């Protein structure tokens, strides 16, 4: 893992912590990221996967509303 990437991940975690967002969702997302990193999937394009995750989150919100 490159240092810049590592630092960015740490900064992201810190930001979430400061927002008081250490809810189940955040921890779950952390676990998901760890799993992806272990699979070596960070080469796919992080932004692309983030977009997919956002779409999935929207779908979940819609499901909850119904």
Provide an overview of this structure.
By secondary structure, this protein is mainly alpha-helical. The chain has one domain (about 5-65). About 75% of the residues lie in helices and about 0% in strands. The protein contains three helices and no strands. It is globular. The mean pLDDT is about 75.
Summarize the structure.
With 66 residues, the protein is mainly α. It has helices at residues 3-18, 24-38, 46-65.
Keywords:
77% helix; 0% strand; mainly alpha; 66 residues; globular; single chain
For the record, the count of structural domains works out to 1
Mean pLDDT across the residues is 76
> What fraction strand?
under 5%
Question: What is the overall shape?
Answer: globular
Succession of helices and strands: HHH
How many helices? The count is 3
Annotation, overall tally of beta strands:
0
- Runs in which pLDDT lies below 50 for 5 or more consecutive residues are none
Distance between the termini: 42 Å
Characterize the largest beta sheet: strand count, sense, and whether it forms a barrel: none
List the topology elements.
Layout: H1 3-18, H2 24-38, H3 46-65
